[in-house]
Amino acid sequence: MAGEFELIQRIFSGHDKAPGVSLGIGDDCALIRPSAAGELALTTDTMVEGRHFFKGTPPYYLGWRALAVNLSDLAAMGACPRYFLLSLTLPSGDQAWLEEFARGLFDLSSQAGIALVGGNMSKGELAITITAIGEVIPGQALLRSGAQPGDDLYVTGGLGCSGLHVQSGLGEIKLSPELEARACHDSFILPCRTEFAARLAAECGCRCAIDLSDGLVGDLGHIVEHSKVVASVWVDKLPLSPVLAEALSSGQVTEEQSLEHALYGGCDYELLFCLTPDRRAQLQDLAAGLKVPVSRIGRIESPRSRAAGTAGKEGSAIRLLQDDRELAIKPGFEHF
Amino acid sequence: MAGEFELIQRIFSGHDKAPGVSLGIGDDCALIRPSAAGELALTTDTMVEGRHFFKGTPPYYLGWRALAVNLSDLAAMGACPRYFLLSLTLPSGDQAWLEEFARGLFDLSSQAGIALVGGNMSKGELAITITAIGEVIPGQALLRSGAQPGDDLYVTGGLGCSGLHVQSGLGEIKLSPELEARACHDSFILPCRTEFAARLAAECGCRCAIDLSDGLVGDLGHIVEHSKVVASVWVDKLPLSPVLAEALSSGQVTEEQSLEHALYGGCDYELLFCLTPDRRAQLQDLAAGLKVPVSRIGRIESPRSRAAGTAGKEGSAIRLLQDDRELAIKPGFEHF
């Protein structure tokens, strides 16, 4: 097995050249000089084998998604991706595995314009931790607390693919091999929403977003809690991911299963955001220009629009409306 | 088991108030506004159970050391600690364990003046990843490449304690219970060298340092390689850690074992640095003022002082001198 230094040098070096990087990989720390006017957004996320992905998931997929989930947090703040650090724990220094992992990682990092400036490798159960750093224009960050009564509620992309992939991987439903492979692909090769989010903040005046990691209801719960508002969601307007839509139309999942994935399925890493109705046209232009699918799925309301006593508590401040009915809320997904 | 959010909130929140933190824990990212004139130093390090520490190590020790090894990297750049992020993977949400872990972590973070601004928890094999961010005065960072022929070579503290602890934990030697407990304590409750290092840069004009993670010979190898110099180490001047010194004097380890730990034992996290001889008095004042033990252990020389062909390669550019003999070099410790 090659030494740690050579492995890191051979496979992970050379991706640390970027504006603001005064010293890349190779010393005790990287050194960066962020732009003087900027505010930095910091986030870290871990993926553990058997917990966040199934054993045997292609390493290319893992490299892509380990970075993608962190980019998703940057997008949720409207931050431009700048630098990241990688901490990789793996059972062996398998070179072919590492090269595929790195290929996935760097295919996405090149697309997103983020530089790998540091990291380390250890022996152990397969786990990947990335810390990502982005820049925000001071005062323009998208916050969970930024929703205002009267705002439209939007989501990017389609929902429920990761939930479908997990359910299929656990053997709880049986998908066709073709659909199963597509569900896996689409759950890992996530689109990057950072440019859209940064321009949403700068051009459309958006001030509120979150990324979908705990499921639509769970993450909308964070928005209503932090913003002290209530939200109505029009269930029939929820965009299903293409794979989930096909599974539904071909009878491989039921209506009920599909709705469950769209409302509560975790790890879709799409952007949920709020915007005043007078920005609808600007939003449409931005979304069309960047080819980002955007769906208007509900409305933010004042807590006074609910009977006293029911608002403020997570879940109870969300109304799921379908036709003339209001659906009951299940508790959101949590990691413990 | 309590939900992830409540656990994090209860145990890890409230340590994110610090100058420059515009948004702490609780959104998708933390937001910081570093001082405009500063350069940021970024580092990340992971500790995995069974690899970097034995199963059953007290959680207080783990919390302290997980941060300490990252502070050590900041010290090695002369950076002032500012912010850190924590990624914790653990088999269960054991509250007593988490509280002790947090107590060790925050005892050190308070002392070092570094704020926890973000993190996450996952289920899995016990592993702790911290990413730390410090500030450096631009152009004053301590670099591996900063050694100059003629410089004195110094090390802080004492060497070989972690090597002794590991050898004892593996059952390769038998220490008295009292010494075994002290070796474990001193391997985890590491001193913080960040203030010393920052002032070494600012007040003594030091430009070269590294922290000892791969052992003295291994890490000195990085300095000579990056600085394109050679180094002589006076083996009899190497400061032994108090525990190793006592193990030696009481006959619990041999001279040979002691030397092995001091030269090649990893994870001492002391500072190895170079300084021109005209700064000796200033260094002495600084070290005395901060009560940091400092030992002069060798000298940096020009590669021309070695026969052509032997310099430049790691190891061969280091001379270990004892009395009139030159000791042969073993390959340094590496993680793979």
Structure report:
2 copies of one chain form a homodimer. Chain A has helices at 4-12, 59-77, 95-112, 161-169, 177-188, 194-204, 216-227, 242-249, 255-264, 280-290; strands at residues 21-23, 30-32, 39-48, 80-90, 115-123, 127-136, 152-156, 208-211, 230-234, 271-275, 294-301, 318-322, 325-327. Chain A has 336 residues and is of the alpha+beta class. In chain A, a hairpin with a 2-residue loop joins strand 12 and strand 13 (325-327). In chain A, helix 4 crosses helix 9. The model of chain A is unreliable at 308-315 and 332-336 (pLDDT under 50). Chain A has 2 domains: 4-136, 60s Ribosomal Protein L30, Chain: A (2-Layer Sandwich), CATH 3.30.1330.10; 144-327, Alpha-Beta Complex (Phosphoribosyl-aminoimidazole Synthetase, Chain A, domain 2). In chain A, the strands form 3 sheets. A 7-stranded mixed β-sheet of chain A has the order 8-10-7-11-9-12-13, with helices on both faces. The first copy, chain A, has a 4-stranded mixed β-sheet with strand order 3-6-4-5. A two-stranded antiparallel sheet of chain A has the order 1-2. Chain A is globular and about 65 Å long. The interface between A and B is large, with 69 and 70 residues.
Key structural traits:
homodimer; 336 residues; alpha+beta; 60s Ribosomal Protein L30, Chain: A; Phosphoribosyl-aminoimidazole Synthetase, Chain A, domain 2; 2 domains; seven-stranded mixed β-sheet; 35% helix; globular; disordered C terminus
